[in-house]
């Protein structure tokens, strides 16, 4: 068996490398029909994401914890001629799911366009190697294909991160690729036609909506799948605990036992502040400006573990978490500090069993 996350020496291995063993076992056990150029059947892709046990006993770890139907719709979309848009607030695993989908479907999650306000058209279509272009004129050899073009030619999955941050006119260069399944190269009088197996996964943040709203022409090419925040505190604690364990092992952090209570506390604090009300529904709270996502909870706990492992007594304690939690909550120094102080005095201070945390937060703030 392979240890997730440490099959290679890479600091942050690609999903297809980190989980190569699981993908291989799934492919071997998978006797369902596969769409052309897919490494696995849609059923096996969903199992890879959601986890399960194969007939030979191989355990597939869950990558995504969330509604099964959401994953099934996402995978089924990729088997059609529509592209997939993963939508959600920050930290809902959009990037994570898109990487694992590409790894499971195409065995390659590296064809990636990072969307920013400065993403150029070349990142969606193609560019030129200017030395060759000047020396030889336009030719196939002088052309530098974009990840989109490479995926079209190879019949694989390409990912576009943060699609709505990309300027609208650059976004629109995707329309021809997604509707006509071709990328014209007017300079050469040629085109690159997508072969079967090509598809595109884009991610976008709910909060960015309106920044560069997708044009309706482009939106029609996508099936949108919304990734929700974890429905319950239990589900969120489970996600955080799993990921922290994987990350801790890939960073080679010494094992810190009994982190469960502190993980539950971060998740409780983040959920209460996010929801604007305490878990028992009794006290209304102000929400800070940050997102306090599951992803942030994961990094706060990881930071706490590093403190506990290297500078503490090997047990994760409130003192290892306080600074990280405050750092995540207080993004805007003025407004968020007030929100945090109110929460500290009205909720943390009064809560049974939270005295250590209250004291640690007061110390960290001083
Ligand atoms: N429902 C979930 N299941 C599994 N992991 C999750 C879930 N929600 C968040 N995560 C974790 O949060 C981290 C960051 O998610 P990311 O994909 O970067 O978020 P986004 O792209 O939506 O902002 C990942 O490490 C992922 O494992
Ligand atoms: Mg992301």
From TrEMBL:
Could you tell me which species this protein originates from? Answer: Streptomyces blastmyceticus
- Taxonomically, which superkingdom? Bacteria
Annotated ranges, domain ATPase dynein-related AAA: 84-222
* Upper lineage: Bacteria, Bacillati, Actinomycetota, Actinomycetes, Kitasatosporales
Q: Which InterPro entries match?
A: ATPase_dyneun-rel_AAA, CbbQ/NirQ/NorQ/GpvN, P-loop_NTPase
Protein name per Swiss-Prot or TrEMBL: AAA family ATPase
